[in-house]
Design a protein that fits this description.
The protein has 332 residues and is an all-alpha fold. The chain has a domain of 103 residues: Alpha Horseshoe (Serine Threonine Protein Phosphatase 5, Tetratricopeptide repeat). It is built from 19 helices and no strands. It starts with a helix and ends with a helix.
């Protein structure tokens, strides 16, 4: 075993020993909370939950214990039970900021945007300097279609913390959606500078640059995004689109195959793989890719139109006519 790994294991064992010592030390709520946090950090979530359950029996009105238990249960997908603990925490501690913030995260995980919105608004009302609260409030408002409210919240976040890369990145998304491309690129550049190890930040900047036809810089950003996270299917897809644009079809094929391995049910990947193969006059492979795209997304006329082209190349006139007919019907 390497020295670093040994030291890491020793440190972990010491942390867990400390947590067990705290649990045995008595019924002090602060000790129980510290022990549960250690268990959770070290990957012993079940032990953390058990510790909190026991602690709450002795301290049923402790909002920090209730909040942490709700958070751990929510992260594990036990949403109904987590609801009970968050409700108790917010009722017993109506000014406890972390209780409202973590309950908002809990609601957002389930797509309960109205409840999440209310909890985030309470969070920032209680603590106007809560940067994460403002960022998440902005994202929730954007998800509900309130672009102006989202912009106000995210702007407040970057005012409070100019180094908040997440806020800059999401402001960039808002600007991009509004067609304010220069402003979007500026925010994305800030996010990359603040968070150079973020695959998502590089993807956002690369995608925005590609929309501006700045192919060289876009390729550099998207390639870096993939280097930082080889499982980022969207970055692989964007890089493939770039290579299709410049005629590098073989590279696009490689990237699209990698993206499909990561997300096999995404019809876009199969369609553009069909495009790349068709550009190379590889009709057999194009047909396989496009037929899969048609299975996944049967109402996309582009897929059927290109299938018709591929069938024509294979001299399959009946199937080609049917594909063209289907494309025309879908186009209305």
């Amino acid at each position: 075993m390497r020295e670093g790994a040994l030291a890491s294991n020793t440190s972990r064992e010491e942390s867990l020993a400390l947590a067990e010592h705290l649990v045995r030390g008595g019924a002090d709520a602060a000790q129980i909370l510290q022990a549960a946090r250690i268990f959770a950090i070290e990957g012993h979530r079940d032990r953390a939950v058990e510790t909190l359950r026991q602690g709450i029996l002795a301290h049923p009105r402790d909002v920090e214990l209730l909040t942490l238990l709700g958070d751990l249960l929510s992260r594990a997908g036990a949403f109904e039970e987590a609801d009970l603990y968050f409700r108790q925490a917010c009722e017993l501690g109506p000014t406890f900021v972390d209780g409202w913030f973590r309950s908002a995260l809990h609601h957002a995980r389930q797509g309960r945007l109205d409840e999440a919105l209310q909890a985030y608004e309470t969070t920032v009302r209680l603590d106007g300097a809560h940067v994460r609260g403002w960022v998440n409030l902005g994202l929730t408002r954007a998800d509900r279609g309130d672009r102006e409210g989202a912009h106000a919240a995210l702007t407040r976040a970057v005012t409070l913390d100019p180094a908040c890369a997440e806020a800059h990145s999401n402001l960039g998304v808002l600007y991009a959606e509004a067609g304010m491309r220069a402003e979007a690129i500026e925010e994305f550049r800030r996010a990359v500078k603040l968070q150079p190890e973020s695959s998502e930040a590089h993807f956002n900047l690369g995608w925005a640059l590609l929309a501006e036809d700045d192919v060289e810089q876009a390729e550099a950003m998207l390639a870096q995004s993939v280097r930082l996270d080889a499982t980022n299917a969207e970055s692989l897809y964007a890089l493939a689109l770039l290579h299709l644009r410049i005629g590098a079809n073989a590279r696009a094929v490689t990237e699209l195959k990698q993206a499909i391995e990561l997300r096999p049910a995404d019809a876009r990947f199969h369609y553009h793989l069909g495009v790349a193969y068709n550009n190379q006059d590889a009709a057999d492979q194009a047909i396989l890719a496009l037929e899969e795209a048609a299975r996944l997304c049967p109402d996309d006329p582009r897929v059927h139109r290109l299938l018709g082209v591929a069938y024509d190349k294979k001299e399959l006139p009946v199937r080609a006519r049917e594909a063209y007919r289907r494309a025309a019907a879908l186009n209305g």
